[in-house]
Structure formats: C-alpha cells, structure tokens
Amino acid sequence: MSKNSFLTQIIFNYVMAAVFIWFTIDFVKSTGWGFFSILCVVIATNDFVRGTKMLQLFLKIKNHNKD
Question: Where are the domains of the chain?
C-alpha cells in the first residue's frame, strides 16, 4: 500500500465518522434515541477508532523509516 493511499484511507475513515456523527445528531433531533441513532454511533465509533489506529501505525512506520 502506498503512502498516498494509506493517508487517503485514514482521511476517509475520519470523514465517514463525521458523516455518521452528523446522521446521529439529525436522527436524535427528529426521533430521539432509537435503533438507527445507536447504529450510527456504533459505526462512527468504529470508523474513528480504525482511522486512529491506522494513523498511529502510519506515524510509527514513518518515524521508524527516519532512523
């Protein structure tokens, strides 16, 4: 996996987390805490955690290659 595609995937995960958080806020405003609100929170959390782990891995590889 190239550096650019890795960074693109990290950014995509954070963007999708933001989109699902926005959906959650919209669902909670209109219908309250229901199934879809909780599902969106779970998906957003998954995307955010995956993006963060990938970013940590990217920085670890980048710092290792500097040495």
Answer: 3-66
